[in-house]
Amino acid sequence: MPTLKVRKYRNSVYVVYTHKGKIFKIFTGVKIEDKDWNGSFPKKSCPDYDIILQQITDTELRVLNASLKLRAMGMDPVVDKVRAEFYAQVTTVRPFWELYDEYLEVKTFKQGTLQKAVVYMKMLKRFCTKTGYTFDIDTWDNLTFGRFIQYLLVDQRYADSSINRLVRGTKSFLRFAYPKKDLSWMTYIQLSIDEEIVALKEGELTTLILAELDGYLDQARDLFVFLSTTGMRFSDSQRFDPSWITPEGILEFNQVKTGGKAMPPLYEVGRRILDKWGGIPPRFTNNKFNKQLKDLFQILNLDRPIVSHIVKGKVVHRSVSPLYSIITSHDARRTFITLCLQKGMPIQDVMRMSGHSDYKSMKPYMRVSLRHLRSEADKWDI
Question: How far is 141 from 134, CA to CA, in rounded Å?
């Protein structure tokens, strides 16, 4: 059976509708301090008690009426239908950015997705400021959407993959805020490019390991090598705990980004790095680490040309850059996966080690591995 409750999150009061394990949280417009709140309703000593209580009660009644109307029509009052019916009742148009703030606060996001949703909101705000457009769902059409895409391509210099993610994230919010609005047209098709994966070759990794360095270059080298031989993401390395090391010499931990479990081996080079730095990998901020990597790779003459593509308006722009100028922390993880596959390790084992949960994200590495196997096979002249 559906349930209806009043709850306070931080200082904001919500009506919470629950049915069949799903939740619909609606902001009542009331913000109240803990000292003025008594479990599920305001204390009588609360300033503007009558007004606040009426505002909460009105929101409860609108949600309840939406549920009752659906049942009267012989329909199951599931959360999505109640949400749509609730917003259909609302006669006053709520400010767009207020709706976005509510979305960020009440939407249940996967790990790491909330930060992206905030980025999408800020980008939409910048577009509105730049163009003088006041967001209105009734004027948000193909023409306005096209101006938004042009802004991302020209002003922000976004690649197709980034625009695709931003469009999908913005569309998710608009469906939350305007559930009856048809947004099926709001898509951005990216051009598929067989992009070169930036990963070190085995010889380049060996050069890095054997280089005699000191100071910050030594630290940056050791962290990159540690990441390259464990497949660990930078974010996980910065919270590394020695308890992750199992008696079998495996690192076992849940990843920050996905929550999935990764179980990479701890090779001898990784053990030496941990011993050298007091049992944990060197600590950096990501920006500082990426900058120091570029210095490190340039000093070691790791300047192999890397071909990259940026797709703008379905036009492919090709550029060639030396490895040292584009190297980043995440390329260490790519190095680990690429070298493991080139060594002939089964892809399912590599996925267990790296913490990948599906084959889709492994496709680019599989292409690299197949090209490598083909080049190795060509050495046999028969």
Answer: 13
pLDDT tens-digit map of 156-209? 878 777 888 889 888 888 887 777 778 888 888 765 555 567 889 999 999 999
At 150, the amino acid letter reads Q
Burial of 370 per CB tally in 10 Å (0-12, 13-18, 19+): exposed
Structure letter (DSSP) for residue 152: I
Q: Give the whole-number percent of the chain exceeding pLDDT 70.
A: 86
pLDDT in tens, 38-91: 887 888 888 888 888 888 888 888 888 888 888 888 889 888 888 878 777 654
Distances (CA, A) of 195 to 65, 282, 309, 364, 365: 53, 31, 7, 8, 10
- Give the Cβ contact number of residue 101 at 10 Å: 14
What is the pairing mode between strands 261-262 and 253-254?
antiparallel
**How far apart, in whole angstroms, are the C-alpha atoms of residue 286 and residue 155?**
26
Contact call for residues 102 and 178 (beta carbons, < 8 A): no
Among residues 107, 108, 104, the alpha carbon closest in space to that of 124 is found at 104
Instruction: Indicate the length of the chain as a whole number.
Output: 382
Is the pTM value of this prediction over 0.70?
no
Looking at per-residue pLDDT, the higher value among 2 and 161 belongs to: 2
Which domains are seen in the chain, by residue range?
A: 3-92 (no CATH), 106-177 (no CATH), 202-377 (1.10.443.10)
- Alpha carbon distance, N-terminus to C-terminus of the chain: 73
Measured distance CA(197)–CA(230) in Å, rounded: 18
Q: Which long-range contacts (CB under 8 A, 24 or more apart) does 301-304 make?
A: 302/200, 302/204, 302/207, 302/208, 302/327, 304/201, 304/204
